[in-house]
Write a sequence for this structure.
């Protein structure tokens, strides 16, 4: 199974259109948040229309820069994965949107305790050895959470959940400059970077194997 992994579109309709033309040989599209840049439902609508045009299953969590209306629209479309255990073409997937409080106020944030509660409530539903975690905020002290100044700013709750429950693949975003494919515990961790900057990733998943590569438009 080929997964198209994107994050942090921040309202860039043209980049998403370009991607829809370039990447046509995929089976599932995973979006790790920030469809909009402080937008709501109306700003998200044209982006969701493009997501539909890929004609593959799509699963999305909201980002910290997405207002409540974005989550409402994703729920209406049946593609919202936040706080749920869902199926990505038969593979179990758990979603967590939003982020820890940022240096500037953003619409969708949570505490470490709230993140742990959302994830913990879903853990018992994971069956088998292969599953995916789709989360906007990357795990702390990882290859995906280092800001330009060099400091790690990820979530300790997300990190603990990954170590304890060992997803095969973790798809994240939020920290644009920390685009990477790396190992975190027993999991493959992918931060595709910001699609607004032309960055994304493609992963191969299944039969006990998972790999990913970063790409650019």
């Amino acid at each position: 199974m080929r997964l198209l992994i994107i994050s942090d579109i921040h309202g860039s309709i043209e980049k998403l259109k370009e991607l829809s033309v370039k990447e046509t040989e995929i089976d599932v599209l995973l979006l790790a948040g920030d469809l909009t840049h402080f937008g709501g439902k109306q700003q998200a609508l044209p982006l969701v229309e493009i997501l539909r045009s890929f004609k593959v299953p799509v699963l999305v969590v909201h980002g910290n820069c997405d207002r409540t209306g974005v989550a409402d629209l994703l729920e209406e479309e049946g593609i919202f994965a936040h706080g749920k255990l869902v199926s990505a073409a038969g593979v179990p997937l758990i979603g967590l949107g939003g982020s820890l409080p940022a240096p500037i106020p953003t619409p969708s944030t949570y505490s470490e305790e709230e993140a742990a509660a959302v994830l913990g409530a879903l853990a018992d539903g994971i069956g088998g050895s292969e599953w995916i975690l789709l989360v906007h905020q990357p795990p702390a002290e990882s290859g995906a959470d280092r800001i330009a100044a060099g400091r790690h700013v990820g979530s300790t709750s997300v990190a603990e959940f990954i170590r304890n429950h060992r997803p095969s693949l973790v798809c994240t975003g939020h920290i644009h400059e920390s685009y990477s494919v790396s190992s975190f515990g027993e999991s493959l961790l992918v931060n595709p970077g910001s699609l607004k900057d032309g960055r994304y990733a493609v992963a191969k998943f299944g039969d006990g194997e998972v790999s990913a590569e970063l790409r650019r438009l």
In short: The first strand starts at residue 2 and ends at 6. Residues 164 and 177 are 27 Å apart (CA to CA).
